[in-house]
Specification:
alpha/beta; Rossmann fold
Length: 194
Amino acid sequence: MRLVITGTGRCGTGYVAKVLQNCESITAGHEFVFGPHGPDPKRDVTVDVSWLAIPYLPQVRHEMNIGLLYRHPAAVISSFLGIGFFDRNSMYLDFMRNYVPDIENMEPFDAACHWYVASNQHALNYAHFVTNIDSVAWEKIVRALHLNASELAAAIPAVSQTYNHRTRADIDLDDIPGSVWATYELLEGASRAS
């Protein structure tokens, strides 16, 4: 692997993976190497786009490039709530609880906010580049993958930007804690700097 692109989940990893899967010179996975049961080193791709890579970034930071994909906190939080992520047990929720046990007894809104902060702040320590899904810095991905820019440019229009879009819950921006907004500002700054 040359690159892992990670994020919070519900931040656009599915869309980015689908675009990269349309590039013939590389092999791209979505939660393929980094899955809910941990990394599977036997799976071979050029890039894996997976929010499930978050806990393993310290171990892989010297082996491959790490990209951090982020999205506006209201979009991430409302998407987690809209799909009922915290309302039912799943291997994905178990994964999240194993990594950030604090969310175990939180209400869904509070858990989504806490995850946004914890996962992004952790990933910021290891990311070689940071990009917002609303204006993906494709050139950073091209460099990390040694990809032909024209090949990627041809792949982008083939995928709808609403790929993997799900129902969102209504949330009040005023209810989002200051720690979330502070993390978002850190991400914005890191994106400009990387």
